Amino acid sequence: MSGLAKQERLAALRASIANIERRPVLSDPVSTQAHAPDQFIVPAPGLVQEVFADERRNTAALLGFALGQARSLLTPVRRAVIYLQMLAEAQEMGLPYGPGLATFGFDPDALVLIRPANIVELLWAVEEALACGAVAAVIADIAGHPKVLDFTASRRLSLRADAGGTSLFLLRYGAWREASAAQLRWHLVPALSATTQFDARAPGETRWRARLERGVIGDRQNQEWLLEWTENGFHIVDDRERRPAQPVERPSLPGDLFADLADRLSEAG
Amino acid sequence: MAAVDRLAAAQMLYIGQNLADAHAMVPDLTAREIDLPLLEAAFGIFADWHSNASPLVAVMNDMNAYGDLVLDITGVSHLFGSELAMLRTMVLRLRQLGYAADGAVASTIGAAWAASHFAPNRVVAADQTGSLLDGLSVAALRLLPMQIAGLTQMGLKQIGQLRGRDRKGLQARFGASLIMRIDQAYGYLEERMTPRLPIAERYAERKFPDPIGLMDDVLMTTHDLGIQLGIRLESEGLGAQAFHLFLYRVDHKVMTLSVNAGSPTREPGHIARLFANRAERLQGEYDAGFGIDMIRLAASSVSPLEASQLGAFSRQDGTDLGRLYDRMSSRLGMFSVVRSAFVDTHIPERAVRLEPVIARSADNPASMPDPEQERPLRLLPMPEPIGITAEVPDGPPMAMTWRRVSYRFVKAEGPERLNAEWWRSGQRLVLVPPATPQELEELKKLGKTPPYIPNVPLFYTWNAVRDYYVAEDAGGRRFWLFRLGIYGVAPNPTWYLHGFFS
């Protein structure tokens, strides 16, 4: 074989490999919509989002966060949200409660509960639901770390979600992070609720401290927000006075401030 | 003795004879104790299997201990060539399996019974029914032993002798049932049978020259049958919500698979997919035995379904929620795909009923939840008892221990008092009515103990009043707690955790 023919052949092989490896372009998570500075940017549909809590007892916080996002994805065509949880786990963690959904601001009629007996059936149902064009979002509540839900499975789900334009929320628990093909990964911690206007002792609006562990929203990466749930959706609470969201690069202390401190110290002494 | 076979009958043994008597007559008699439940089950299986010959099959239990198989062959016999050919096929089929079987075809159930027991294996034409019956013994009329004895004593040994008699006299002496049996046998009185399987008017079936065994083949056939059935339903302008697949095995057993759809359908692809999902759920249960030689797909719960245009203006494929729910229900089970239906009550756990999506009921506007009420996002299936620190009598909770973890509350709101249902006050949960004194006496005589009735305390509203609190701990978790009972009124108020807020 002459050198030229060999090179041509190699080029053809490379092209075919590139063709095989060409994956479908996943949705662009960057939202270009204009938004108010205190408005939380809800990620675009068709993404797989993992939402992690440290403990199982925070399960309601995860559900609230996922439902809050799912509510904004509901349209006249996409009119259902599917919630999946294995039968045995509902005994321990409770089931989404219709009147509570109404309190939260979510139409209970739009939520369908699926209670499969095992993880294989759960993943099958997730895939079926993602392929349906009338489903706005799928919320899968998975308490353990099942072996079946590995990178391959999550890649499969993310391709399905992308093809169908349906969002998938995987509610997970614990500190362990498996390899997954999710575009966004949140770490969610419930935060002390807002104070109410008339009763300081009463719990106010729900708040979460949400950290984006993976992925990009807008131009934010690895950022932490304090989110509040209001009837208009998520709202970013500015709490930088009390606790900086990110370690900020501070200039070294200016001299006069230093002097101030020294003065106070001398007074105290 | 409940039954005798041909050999035994030849030795002059008869039904109803003493076993000791029979042993005396035939010393090497093989006698087996009759196992009624087993026989009944076996007859049930036989009956179901015979529905591959005719859809109307019943087991009649009124005459002997084990039953008689009845088939309505109206409009079916031509499939076998003739009535005689059908009878021969049916009886031979059973005999080849090693059973002693006899049969007869007649225009009434009574005449068929008489012929099959006293002049077996023949077809009695409608105009010969009378003449055949006239010559048979009165025992062929499905009478009680007492009636037969009485009639024989009076010299009325043949049915024909009864016909000319005064009916009123016979009725006075032998009871109304005699007259009824005569009328039924001659067809003056209509007799109904209760089919074992639901009658499906619309079905498609296929017989195989060689039995098939693989589930894939069954599913492919289901798709073909779905097309046939779909065409039939379409021509009538109907759709069905329930589909049943009957698999007739060579070894006289029938397997049934059923699927339900949320809305009427007749699309073969959808039906086949539902059955494929249903079959996935079978897994180990599927057993084709020596093969399946006939498959029938039947539709029930039919309702009008207008033809809809496909193509140009139809919705995009795969955007039908109903289809999705059908598929999920067929694979996971109907009760695994549920929605919240609201019940008009203020008791939180009873306010929601999880109902299958594909069998949804109409919403009652009066029972819709009020968004202004503070209700948790997640509700525990059963309230869990907790240890609590709270000010008596009704201060908000300050700390709790739940599942061995303690929580300190920093905020709390409440109470929201939910009163118990006053109209049930002073009542008690009764599952079995307590025995009356006379019944107790009778039970004592028989040496039996009366049924156990737990001593459930009476229901009083003040024991069941709930005060609900929303409490938030330092970590921002919010719980829905309640105290059952009021301090000072209820004997021991207890605290429970019922739900979680987001």
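Residues 23-34, 243-259, 265-269 of chain A have pLDDT under 50 and may be disordered.
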